């Protein structure tokens, strides 16, 4: 029995898992194998006679045409990759092998779907880079900027927002990217029915397609139904929304899948973990340097700032003053009214001290009812005397404890660099001794 090789080869082509395309010199499709329908969703009858470029992703049109010209000039392609748009709107990554046949004036190409491979590569790269950024970022804004740069590299043609959420002000803050570089940060009120508002209010990941039921809505605009596709994921820590990641695309060929949403959810989870860790580190750092009752600088940080101030004063030849304060009769307050009332007095004293000093000054609680104030950048002793009077006046005002008004007086000792000492130890001893002289005088 004889076999017709030409008929057999035609049948074999339709058995190949990779689609075969034949395109004439004008770029029109003259033949496609049956595997094309699996790849792009179109039947052979739908594609025959249509321009091949009509199926190419809009963002890949220019380089695809350039590649086609090279093939027609006699340069075979065996590894050209681009994206095509399926009938359902999804994009597919295709690896091509193509050759031009001059005698027939056609180019024949075999296409391989590498979408799954590219998505796996992309996901792996994003996961690795985001994990690295989450560990390296020093603060929340640095983290947002790093994640924004990473996602921007992989999201071609999309609008991308990696934002922090201020629940008190109901404002989203996000970095604006220009050519991959972070320019300024933008504040956007969380109003209306935007994608951001939906994600923040629900605390849930959302995926929108052009089905008319859930239109794409950008961060700062109202969109018409079906105008764009978007997906958004909240950054959630302990049931509190800290921010969100939103990607939006208004291209007619764009769409997002649950795989894309899963990727963003991983990114958001990494961000939440990093922000929690940074917050825990900040809390530990704060507790190590501040008094837990009053929130004032503690003894350790005060000594550090005093040494820093003295080094600066030696260089600038300015004066530094150290005030040492003690509350008169505080033990009696604790004994008569209890430690809770005593704690309220200490907190009120701390608030008044901070209210009547400059931001450049340091107010510290040294322990018990003893406080210190570090005054820097002084040019004469008169400024110190004025500050002491200001503090005494502030403390002289009655404090309310429940239904009772209580007046608490203070004894204040002062030491000035370099008049009363050259180093921290000398100044502290002088101020402490001066304070006890004032206290004995007030008691006598």
Automatic annotation (TrEMBL):
Tell me what organism the protein belongs to: Marinobacter halodurans
> Which residues does the UniProt record annotate as the domain GGDEF?
318-444
PROSITE patterns (alphabetical): GGDEF (PS50887), PAS (PS50112)
Q: What is this protein called?
A: GGDEF domain-containing protein
- Record CDD domains: GGDEF, PAS
According to the record, the segments passing through the membrane are: none
Give the classification, highest ranks: Bacteria, Pseudomonadati, Pseudomonadota, Gammaproteobacteria, Pseudomonadales
All residue ranges annotated as the PAS domain in the record: 11-75
Enumerate the SMART domains for this protein.
GAF (SM00065), GGDEF (SM00267), PAS (SM00091)
Database matches in InterPro entries:
DGC-Regulatory_Protein, GAF, GAF-like_dom_sf, GGDEF_dom, Nucleotide_cyclase, PAS, PAS-like_dom_sf, PAS_fold
Q: State the superkingdom.
A: Bacteria
Give a single Pfam family match. Answer: PAS
Name the PANTHER family for this protein. Answer: DIGUANYLATE CYCLASE DGCT-RELATED (PTHR46663), SLL0267 PROTEIN (PTHR46663:SF3)
